[in-house]
Design a protein that fits this description.
Blueprint lengths: L1 E7 L2 E6 L10 E9 L2 H8 L13 E9 L13 E4 L9 H4 L29 E4 L4 E3 L5 H4 L2 H14 L6 E5 L3 H12 L3 E6 L2 H9 L4 E4 L5 H8 L5 E6 L5 H8 L1 E9 L13 H7 L2 E4 L5 H12 L9 E6 L3 H8 L6 E5 L1
Parallel strand pairs: 8-9, 8-11, 9-10, 11-12, 12-13, 14-15
Antiparallel strand pairs: 1-2, 3-4, 3-6, 3-15, 4-5, 5-7
Length: 344
């Protein structure tokens, strides 16, 4: 078997490793596609620090090729198409035991996964051993599309955190793939969606996936435009999907009384922001964070993609063969793509 290993900053090497005998309680999956998340891009460029060597990849679509003796064959079969997720949570802490794996106290991107030669999430490998509780069936779409189940699951969790109501004005700041998935889900939840970005091509795509209005914040004032669109009320929900701390002030400025500001992205650098506690008190808005996803989110994500409710094809910018994995990363980190996918 082969795996792509981060050996250092901007250094990836393909290594060989042996296929391990399948334990009785595990399933052997053959990876068919792995999308390159911003998280792995930050590892590649050195923004996110990990201990090398490291195996990246957590947006995974695969096929079942082997079953352990104790696996329930009424549910799992050779040839089943699956996505793999939720395996980075510990499974034992308070949050995991209450169904909130996304906030696991011991969430670990650098686990030593069984069957792999190095630590890491493992998806940039030809084969992986999986506990069945971390596998979710999909059908009717390509592996490249199914690999985007993981980012969609995170956005499902984000949108449910915001508790979007019919007729809400929802502002999405940033129209990368995560912002556009927020646009799509919010629109399907009955919201009036306002998409904001600096690039006209991304704003144009936002309209095709559900945005009712767009604001080019390079040319237009975000606060003025939102207030004009909402008759000076502000947005019921604001999603900030960017990693830029300064934009938190903009998000808070446009939220309505009793509204919600959701900080979706990790922030690099993690620069503190200042807020008016008196305005928070008087206007009763909420400032919320969201990260990762849980099993419930994954189940609904694979269903939404499989049944065509959410079309992720517009977000697949490029597809590279596994042997070209380093070229795939060099392309992904340019910042002009939605998702670059590695296929096996």
């Amino acid at each position: 078997m082969k795996t792509a290993v981060f050996e250092g900053i901007e250094k990836i090497k393909i290594e060989e490793y042996d296929i391990q005998k399948i334990p009785d309680d595990k399933i052997l999956i053959k990876i068919e596609a792995c999308a390159i998340c911003t998280w792995e891009q930050r590892v590649y460029t050195g923004v996110k620090q990990v201990e090398f060597p490291f195996i990246g990849g957590h947006e995974i679509a695969a096929e079942i090729v082997g079953l352990g003796k104790k696996i329930n064959e009424k549910i799992w079969h050779i040839g089943d198409k699956v996505v793999y997720g939720t395996n980075l949570a510990c499974g034992d802490c308070y949050y995991c035991k209450t169904g909130q794996e996304q906030n696991c106290l011991y969430f670990d991107h650098s686990k030593q996964l069984e069957g792999l030669p190095h630590k890491g999430m493992g998806g940039l490998s030809e084969y992986m051993l999986a506990n069945p509780k971390h596998l979710f069936h999909y059908d009717t779409v390509t592996p490249e599309e199914a690999a985007l189940s993981e980012p969609l699951s995170c956005v499902i969790h984000s949108c449910e955190t915001a508790d979007i109501q019919y007729g809400d004005v929802v502002v999405v700041i940033g129209c990368g793939i995560m912002g556009l998935l927020h646009v799509s889900l919010a629109a399907k939840s009955g919201a009036i969606v306002v998409a904001c970005d600096l690039k006209d091509d991304r704003l144009a795509l936002s309209r095709t996936v559900g945005a009712s209005y767009t604001i080019n914040t390079k040319e237009q004032n975000l606060y003025d435009e939102v207030m004009k669109l909402t008759d000076q009320i502000g947005a019921n929900v604001v999603f900030d999907t960017t990693p830029i701390s300064e934009l938190v002030d903009d998000a808070v400025a446009i939220v309505a009384n009793l509204g919600k500001v959701v900080l979706y992205s990790s922030f690099y650098p993690d620069t503190p922001v200042s807020l008016s506690p008196d305005r928070l008190h008087k206007n009763s808005y909420q400032l919320l964070g969201t990260a990762n996803s849980n099993s419930r989110d994954f189940m609904r994500s694979t269903r939404l993609i499989s049944k065509g409710v959410i079309d992720v094809k517009p977000f697949i910018s490029e597809v590279y063969d596994f042997e070209e994995v380093e070229q795939a990363f060099k392309s992904a980190v340019k910042g002009d793509k939605y998702r670059v996918v590695v296929k096996f």
